[in-house]
Amino acid sequence: MKARVTVTLKSGILDPQGKAIEAALRSLGIVGVSSVRQGKVFEIDIDGSDSAKAEALLKHAADKLLANTVIENYRVDILG
Amino acid sequence: MKAAVLVFPGINRERDMARTLRLISGRDPAIVWHTETELPSGTDLVVIPGGFSYGDYLRCGAIAARSPIMDAVRIYAAKGGLVLAVCNGFQIACEAGLLPGVLMRNARLKFVCRDIFLKVERSDTPFTRGYNAGQVIRVPTAHGEGNYTADADTIARLEGEGCVIFRYVGPDGTRDPAFNVNGSTNAIAGIINERGNVLGMMPHPENHVEAAIGPTDGRGLFAGLVEALDRAA
Questions:
Q1: Do the chains contact at A16 and B58, CB–CB below 8 Å?
Q2: At what angle do helices B14-25 and B219-232 cross, to 10 degrees?
Q3: Which residues of chain A does B147 touch, with a Cβ-Cβ cutoff of 8 Å?
Q4: pLDDT tens per residue, range B9-41
Q5: Could you give the residue numbers annotated as active site of B?
Q6: The whole model's pTM is what?
């Protein structure tokens, strides 16, 4: 079973990398982008086919390691 | 002093740290590999040194913070044992929950590798008794992710309870954004936990201890620790 965990910075947390990317887009002439926040995506393969179980497992994994919940939020998507 | 210096894959400042501990305390520290589940018996100072544990993968310090030895360090710290966490060690201590907050990418996105000046905010801790409150010390810094960040409540608590121990300042102690090398909230360079037994700091006091190399402003931290531990013994 495939799943995806998306980790993003909480709002209000300064994201210097996102700001630099935002400025780079502007300098490339890509206009109309008002804000960029950088995050992480984890593509994960899971044993078994119980999606509720997989979701619980990945929430545990995100709380334990994949995200630092002081500064980051995460979302778990079971892709089947 | 019975110090234990922790080593994780990718750590590279453990030898500097061990050399300084030997120089100041007269005793070799134990070098403790991350897979160990216990600290050497009688350990009275745990040092988490700098470097790039696990190549800074995922988040700086995140993977090292979850290694077996850190469970032992958490138990030791909960009993009041002294922990000094420098640079990547500070990042590891935050990720391990020994200290609040997190070290983020430097605001100006540059790796900062040079001497900087720190104001010592308090001298009544085991880590800073070798200094005077308000003293300015010169120490090297070398990091890309030292931008101290925490939620507003945590910052207010740290400031209110005197947990901010070092701040980035100019040579004469002036606070100015120009001297805040990494954009840390309130120019925070080092904090202590509520109980006062865990210190985390980004700069490297262990690299300014020998006159042959340069300034010796880092000595006070280690000499103070030796004194604090002698008094406790």
A1: no
A2: 60
A3: 14, 16
A4: 999 999 999 999 999 999 999 999 999 999 999
A5: 87, 204, 206
A6: 0.94
Name the residue ranges covered by the structural domains of chain B.
Answer: 3-232
∠B10-B15-B19 over CA atoms, to 5°?
A: 160
Which architecture characterizes domain B3-232 according to CATH? 3-Layer(aba) Sandwich (3.40)
High-pLDDT (> 90) share of chain A, %: 91
Give pLDDT, residue B213.
Answer: 86
Contacts of A71 in chain B (CB under 8 A): 102, 104, 149
Q: Which of A20, A65, A71 is nearest residue B109 as measured by Cβ atoms?
A: A20
> What are the C-alpha distances in Å from A46 to residues A6, A49, A62, A77, B104?
16, 8, 14, 12, 31
Residues B165/B158, Cβ–Cβ less than 8 Å: no
Q: Which residues contact B214 (CB under 8 A, 6 or more apart)?
A: B208
The CATH number of the domain covering residues in A2-78: 3.30.1280.10
A70 touches chain B (CB under 8 A): yes
